[in-house]
Design goal:
Length: 251
Amino acid sequence: MAPQENGLKYRRILLKLSGEALAGEHGCGIDPIKAKNIAQRVSRVHQMDVDVAIVIGAGNLWRGQRGNNAGMDRATADYMGMLATVMNALALMDAFERIGVLTRVQSAIEMSSVAEPYIRRRAIRHLEKGRVVIFGGGTGNPYFSTDTAASLRAMEIGADVLIKATKVDGVYDMDPNLHEDAVKFDHLSYIDTLNRRLQVMDSTAVSLCMENKLPILVLNLWDEEALPKALRGEKIGTLVTEPDGVAPDEV
């Protein structure tokens, strides 16, 4: 992708956050301090004249798999997870607005008292007006993850890249926290990602990006320079594209 007029490689991004990014001391619940920390990091790139949309998971509050394992109906467990993502979205919206960043929450599950319904054209208009848009409620359908919701929303709003924010600096062939000899990938193709089962995102999300040639960039959100560097096109994290999606000098 050629650099944009403002010198940035990406002009509009969809940031996928895990619910655990908001988790409290014991790995669950919502910590307002962590929400503010995330908002401050994201606002830095927002000030670079980048359109920012966010999809956040709900692992800090509820995992549908937990309900499934206990014999719950799958659809019911998934709907509970979707509702939890809206709680996280509201917490993140509050954090952004406390530091002066105008934000809108749109939910795929209608709950007009607390969030706008998801309307694609309205979301794009918010982005054009310089607002951060947070998408809650997943896709609005059970059996689909928030990874898939992120891929879908990224394409609907015309994002230049889907950024998967993690606590590690990219994708490795093994867990780098457990294996000292783990090897980091600078670039992967969609097919390699799927064949190696690297769990960058779930297979449905990766396949959706592959079909629509949407790049996926995996980086460490807690590295304060990672997002700005990525937007400037510097080598950071792991980029997932078509096999010829990166110039040889960038691999």
